[in-house]
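FORM 7B - TANDEM STRUCTURE REPORT

SECTION 1: FIRST PROTEIN
SEQUENCE AND TOKENS:
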Amino acid sequence: RPRIWAGGGGESSCTDIDSVSAWTSVLPLAVQFGLFACLIQVSTNLHNDYADFVKGADTDKRVGQARATQRGWLTPYETCRGCVLCMLAALIVGMVRLVPLERECFADDSEVIKRDPYMVFIVASSLFNAVAYTGGPFPLGYIGLGNVSIGYSGLGDLFVFLYFGIIATLGVPYLYLTHVACLIPTSEAPRQELLSILATSFWYSLPVSNLATSIIVVNNLRDRHTDVGAGKKTLAVRFGGTFVKCEYFILVVGSYAFCLFQWAIRTNELLDLLPLLSVPFSVRHLRAVSFGYKDGQALNEHVGGTAKLQLAYCLLLAAGLGIRR
């Protein structure tokens, strides 16, 4: 689903690094974290493709874009195999490149590799969530968790907000601070400084998280009628179409309200208004999703369109931060 990757690539672009020399250090970390994030997203999509089919959510009545398992292009086994390969690749990238801390950051000359426990949690939980998002018999069924499903329980919006929003945005600054600036998170004083610096990145991650979540909101609005029959209790199923239309409006408009608040109350920097240049692009999606009468297949273009909106917003936000520095 390459159209969704527009959203996946946007978060990592919102990185507040304040010198050219720092950028030369952060670029390899950004590539590595971006590769990990893309592998997690592909793993989630592949498992979602498999699990929705075997759980009965993807039938011949599906109104979303074509899926390989539902169309018969791949068997469920083949889709699972692709998911497992992507997860193994993500595990290797995470444990080999993201988790180990640099030896230069420690005063002792020990050859023992020290690992960042917080990054271990992010890697492990991301891998678990990739299969727990939709759930299903494989692989969670083998450990008695076959009924666990983030998406089917209505927690998909929260999951996307946290992992495809906040964590995806904070990942690169966090790696820079721990791997290059040597703010070791396991020590008290460096941890306090680390949290203080990351507070700014966290603040900027909120509008990014809003737009990431708005993608899944359109998806769930489109699929709510077929999701009912499959027992998929998304927010659109639980509370109805009007509720998620309002949710979409709040998420998208809230992202632009953030720019105005940031400019007027916090920084008084005109460059913080740069993301407002994407407002004309957002109007078409707001009209169609929140105020229009589109439904079913007619909403397909607005799933990918919202992902592109997020990418445009993030690039403008990153440009403003970069120019200001």
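SECTION 2: SECOND PROTEIN
SEQUENCE AND TOKENS:
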Amino acid sequence: MTAGYYKLMMAATLTLATSSQGLLTTASKSNGEYRYNFATVPFLAEVLKLVVSSLLLHRQFLIDPKGTHITRDWKSALLYPIPSIIYLIHNNVQFLTLQYVDPSTYQILGNLKIVTTGLLFRIILKRHLNRLQWIALALLMIGATISQISCDKGSTLAAPLMGYVLGIISACLSALAGVYTEKLMKMNNDNLYWQNIQLYGFGVIFNGLRLFFDDVNVGYSNGISLWPRVVTRGYNIITWFVVFNLAFTGLLVSWIMKYADTIVKVYSTSMAMLVTMLFSIILFDISPNLQLLLGILTSSISLRLYYFDTAELHPDITNKNSKLRDRI
């Protein structure tokens, strides 16, 4: 199995896992409402990712103790809470944005992260994108947007200026978190599982603090959320699938950040949105619309264009150049 094929399989798996998350979350409702504290899901997912990464690192040490590289510098460790801080700010900006725009407009503005990821990919990681790839990213954003526009809502995109400003900031923060994480994962040759332990360790701390402050704000009326019996209160088997799937998705993302790049994640998550819509049509007997079909078509063309080998456009020139190099 080649490295390219392996990356493709991981990206496809991430697409399916991401698309399943929304469906599982909806299915975890009891009588149309969530019976559990939704904030406990990411906390338990972070704990699970931390445990799995620790076990995999231990196994790696047993197999190849000398080849398992680990940096124990505290200055390096201090870089790992930054993604959690960025996501914390992003979540608050999301909340503020929804005070100015409706959910449909918010989803459409969220597609701006596709282009902002490309910009930060170029600025921070110094990765060159050719014109065809920029066109492909623009098409992906257009395809995702088309699939979300409803013809029945004339008020879509009608929002105050502040809503658009916050939407753009949200898109930039989302892109920054992804690009920074990739830079962090590739800054040295540390073992992936060791890097995961540092990332998820801080993730557990930040999510735990959120639960703690939520309890303080309500005067502990619902008990102490971090207490084992309380943290899983209201959980059913589907809720546990939500936790497991979220943890699995996070582990996949870290692998892609280490061995592929942020753009692969962008395509996976964008295509996951379309896959979720298709699953919704099948499971909930929703009629497909023209916007969804156009969105899938545009996104598929975008994917082909982004990974298109420009050498195929001029095979004769490429062959002549290779022969010239051979002579030299």
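SECTION 3: OBSERVATIONS ON SECOND PROTEIN
Residues 192-217 form the longest helix (26 residues).
The radius of gyration is 22 Å.

SECTION 4: SIGNATURE
Preparer initials: ____
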